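Onboarding guide, step 5: your first structure request.
Type a short instruction followed by the sequence, for example:

Predict the 3D structure of this protein.
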Amino acid sequence: MPVRHHWVVRVTHWTTAVAFFILVGSGLRIFAAYPRFARRGESFCCNPFEESGLPSWVQHFWFGGWLAGARNWHFAMMWVLAISGVVYLVFLYRHGEWRTLVPRRGDLRDAWEMARFYLFVRKDHPVQGKHNALQKLAYFSMPVAMSFAILTGLAIWKPVQLGWLTALFGGYVWARYWHFVVMLVLVALVAVHVFMVLTVDPYSLRAMLTGGWDPRTSPEARNARPFFWKRRRDDSLAVGQEHGRPEDV
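The system replies with structure tokens like these:
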């Protein structure tokens, strides 16, 4: 049985998942202590929580207990996320897997065809490599967004020592704002990713846990949409993937 994901990819994936969960929960707890971006007595243009604060249901996602505990967890997980990300990116470069994620000419067309398929406009699943065009867009965006989150986090953590970095983001207030915005973007990406895994490709969980993967269970072979899939009568396409494109291995 072919190996879908190298063990380095699997370890960094789950390490990042745990670190991200704790970072979001502890970050919300930190933000709740002062749910504003402007300094006291000033106003900020783009904060819907300026007057009301965070909704009460957000407390269910807090992590770290009190403010100091949340800060300790947040700073600790920041380094876990950064180290895991560096290991992952180095692996992608050294092993050539970056080729499966970097956008190429024709990806916009392929992404449109995938969207048409998910919307039941197109009947058959478009031919794909290791990832379809929409997955490539999401998986390429995540490391970029996480790098932005780390840089803005450093800018508000050390606004004096790293004053040049804080200034690059428009000052402390704006750096904190961009840090919050990129968190929302990442939460949205992760939520869509989890939804698509559970409703389109639940078999990929095994691949991300053990590496094992059966080409006959791929979304392309099952003609899978969210909550709708059916194995094709002719499985030759899926079987052929096992010995097909180099990027599929």
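Each response can be followed by summary notes, for example: The CA atoms of residues 103 and 137 lie 7 Å apart.
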